[in-house]
Design brief:
The chain is α/β, with parallel strands linked by helices. The protein has 14 helices and 13 strands.
Length: 410
């Protein structure tokens, strides 16, 4: 889910007035990699295609360790630059369509210039239609690792058999009348279900252990001089984020009911010392609608393929909320991370300065930004605003907020 200008928690940040649906109508939201409104026809049978350019590297070059600053670096432990040539079994992954080409190339340049030109990781592109030659040629020319292009199987981008399509149609019509963002879109629902339960099952993804999700038209504002995948492994992290916020409540009225059904059926999957305090203000009775914004994720694919996550997704899929409501992949992933992982297995990448319309994460602390050659405006930082949930993450983990954070509150 993307639109979230909704706030009902017991946060210490002063609460702004709640926006109405009409306020949200004209707001830009999560692009979800080129999924337009309207119906999507079933794709042809699954095919897999690999394209590799000649610059794929077997190892990363040695790097100079950056200076570590105390200005803005309090909070989650900041990673130290790696000088080893070891590469992780990792890939970037993007859900895109051919029409997204000139938007995704902007993201590719950002990722390559700020990070991947040093490490040469692979990139997987997935589409519900075959990629055309222009898309493959242009993207391959820009990426320093191998590129892979795959077609999403029909069963992962269509209505499952147990869904009452007439009921689902009535829901879309009702949401359209209430002007709920993407409420009338079939393709958006297919996308959310695919990102929630299937992208990590695609044959092209099976070879990898780690992923970094990238969407069109993002920006990376600071240099990243260490291997983020290796950092995740070395620090026993399974999931990570840079932005967090509140979900648009009218899209997920019964999501937490399904979550509680899963918890009751599978208590063995609920982790000790988990992140429930990020998700709920009353010990799990209700959901506070906080989620990690999933258009940026670095995570462990083996966790997503685990029996715990499989049972979790299957319960949600069975209950039908992807189609009978408009459940987004962001709250689905976030709730899973909050319940199935220990809270210290979730990482906030404070040093990955990031933009996806309409929100910015710009690290707090001037010296911190200067050392990493950042070009973001700190006034745009969303972390400490009233609709952000990042303060909750800090409080749950007893982390000290960085100096100057109060100046960036509403």
């Amino acid at each position: 889910g993307i639109m979230v200008l909704y706030f009902m928690s017991s946060s210490s940040i002063p609460r702004p007035p709640l926006p109405t649906t009409s306020v949200l109508k004209g707001e830009q939201g999560k692009t979800h990699s080129g999924v337009p409104a309207g119906d999507v026809q079933a794709p042809p049978p699954l095919t897999v295609e690999n394209v590799a350019d000649g610059s794929n590297a077997a190892s990363a070059p040695a790097l100079t360790s950056p200076k570590q600053s105390n200005d803005g670096s309090s909070g989650p432990a900041q990673p130290v630059a790696e000088t080893s040539g070891e590469r992780m079994n990792a890939t970037f992954v993007t859900l895109a369509r051919n029409s997204d080409l000139w938007e995704i190339v902007k993201s590719i340049r950002q990722v390559e210039d700020r990070f991947n030109r040093k490490f040469h990781y692979d990139w997987v592109f997935l589409n519900d239609k075959p990629f055309d030659t222009a898309f493959k040629n242009v993207t391959t020319s820009l990426i320093s690792g191998k590129t892979h292009y795959g077609l999403i199987p029909e069963e992962h981008w269509s209505f499952p058999e147990h869904i009452d399509t007439d009921r689902a149609r009535r829901v879309r019509e009702d949401m359209a009348q209430r002007k709920i963002i993407y409420g009338d879109s079939i393709s958006y629902r297919h996308m959310c279900r695919f990102e929630s339960g299937f992208f990590f099952q695609h044959p092209l993804m099976q070879q990898f252990e780690w992923y970094w999700r990238v969407e069109p038209s993002i920006e990376l504002y600071c240099d990243i001089n260490y291997d983020t995948f290796k950092f995740m492994r070395d620090h026993n992290k399974k999931y990570s984020f840079v932005l967090s916020l509140y979900e648009y409540v009218e899209t997920i009225p019964t999501l937490w009911d399904s979550v509680k059904t899963f918890k009751n059926n599978h208590p063995e999957h609920i982790a000790e010392d988990n992140g429930m305090k990020f998700l709920s203000d009353d010990g799990g009775e209700t959901y506070n609608h906080c989620h990690f914004w999933s258009n940026f994720e670095i995570g462990n694919l083996n966790w997503l393929r685990s029996q715990a996550y499989t049972d979790y997704f299957n319960q949600l899929d069975k209950d039908g909320g992807f189609f009978y409501e408009r459940w987004g992949d962001a709250p689905v992933h976030s709730i899973a991370a909050g319940l199935l992982l220990k809270k210290d297995e979730i990482h906030f990448f404070n040093d990955i300065a990031y933009y996806h319309v309409p929100f910015t994460h710009c690290p707090t602390g001037e010296q911190y930004r200067l050392e990493r050659k950042c070009h973001c405006n700190p006034k745009d930082n969303f972390d400490w605003k009233g609709y952000s949930c990042t303060s909750r993450f800090f409080d749950m983990n007893h982390l000290e907020k960085p100096p100057g954070y109060k100046d960036q509150q509403d």
